[in-house]
Design a protein that fits this description.
alpha/beta; Rossmann fold; 6 helices; 6 strands; 149 residues
Length: 149
């Protein structure tokens, strides 16, 4: 994984536990980071990965971790290929939660923001969480509840 953190515009996906695919409470981790000049690797991505893994170990059922997705990007060209693979896996129903180090950072990227909203609306039961306890999910509310009937 470290070798991918050393190259801009690279991505990596590691599938860890196929037994957890589709299980209630199964989840994936998505991290991304930028490789700054003079850095041997993306310290940002490494820090976020360690934070997410520690959170999963302490606060989640880590045996239900299905996959880890990582994008290393530069500011001029963010391909987000690992994010696209995660999106595909979510639509296949491989897991129902995605853990991020910081949801706010993801929402600041207009492309990823739009994709998260699309996923939340089109994939039933999906939940996006971060290590600070922020949760984003789209609940389908019955029309009669909206109308108060």
């Amino acid at each position: 994984m470290l070798s991918n953190m050393m190259k801009n515009n690279s991505h990596r996906v590691d599938y860890l536990n196929f037994k957890a695919v589709g299980m209630n409470g199964s989840f994936g981790i998505y991290v991304r980071g930028c490789l700054q000049n003079e850095q041997p690797y993306s310290m940002e991505a490494k820090r976020r990965l360690f934070i997410c893994l520690d959170y999963a170990r302490r606060s989640m059922e880590e045996e239900k971790l299905v996959a880890v997705y990582m994008d290393i990007f530069d500011l001029q060209n963010a391909n987000n290929l690992a994010f696209q693979e995660m999106e595909t896996d979510l639509r296949k129903g491989m897991f129902e939660k995605v853990l991020f180090a910081d949801l706010e950072e993801i929402f600041k990227d207009s492309v990823l923001n739009e994709k998260l909203f699309d996923l939340a609306e089109s994939v039933e039961g999906i939940e996006f969480i971060d290590v600070d306890g922020n949760v984003f999910e789209a609940k389908k509310i019955p029309l009669n509840q909206i109308l108060g009937v």
